[in-house]
Amino acid sequence: MKTATLASIALAISISAANAQTIGVSMSGLDKFRTALLNGVVSHGQTISGLKLVTENANGDKELQKQQVQKLIADKVDAIILAVSDGDLGPQMTKMAADAGIPLVYINNVPSNLMDLPDNQVVVASNEKESGTLETKQVCALLKGKGRVVVLMGEPFHAAARARTQDISDVIATPDCKGLQIVERQAAYWSSDYADQQMQEWLSAGVKFDAVIANNDEMALGAIRAMKKAGMPMKDVVVAGVDATDDALAAMVAGDLDVTILQSADGQGAAAVDAAVKLIRKEKVPRENNVPFELVTPENIATYLPKSQ
């Protein structure tokens, strides 16, 4: 009986070891949203028995991120989740993973080679056509279709920054919003500090505007900080961002931020882990997996406070 029990324990351990999976996670950096994104990956990964996560942070360094992915491949992880620092790195990252036969899930930032991904590589993100479009349509409505707008863009090479900025132009080109005019547009690299500095420059130069449309909340908050330091009443300007972070929702409750768009870090993180696990099992996963954006305003913010990053 004792021998049988020991045998069954050994068999259980053997099965557990056989089912153990390791997913490597490489983040391009850890700003407010990407930290929430990583937390979404980790928290969902912890709910899956036998799954181990190994995480890396490239701190915005493209070369470092390539080295980190090479190390994950050398360590023979079962799959990689990659928040790529530059969408144009996609072809290199794809080849590295494909040559090693390791499934790859791009998260949040869409690679430039999206249409050429092999069957075991997919993207989990949100449709950026929704984000900038929802954001700008709401600004247009608040301004009743007329006004001067300044735009704060993310990193110029980032697919989301390019898409969200194009969304702004597309909405302004529509009949209902053609009275809006973009008077300034500059990159602030997703950073509140850069946005603060850029806004100070605009104010010092005497730029007149009725709204600030930022590609993310961090930049919107940086712009708000600069305007408040300059004594500009927040009731006189419409400010919009994307991500619905805790800080952004707090600013909205305080009456400083007028519009944000929920990009679900938890949703993207969970979907990326699920996709990686399916690819490890050689199951079919769609090339594009979209997590919807949602408009957040002072009128419906109570619904989103518990869901914020």
TrEMBL record:
Bilayer-spanning residue ranges: none
Keywords of the record: Signal
Keyword set includes Lyase: no
Predominant localisation class: other
Signal peptide: 1-20
InterPro entries (alphabetical): Peripla_BP_I, SBP_2_dom
UniProt-annotated location(s): Cell envelope
Domain Periplasmic binding protein positions: 23-284
Family: Belongs to the bacterial solute-binding protein 2 family.
Protein name according to UniProt: Substrate-binding domain-containing protein
The organism of origin for this protein: Rhizobium brockwellii
Lineage, broadest ranks: Bacteria, Pseudomonadati, Pseudomonadota, Alphaproteobacteria, Hyphomicrobiales
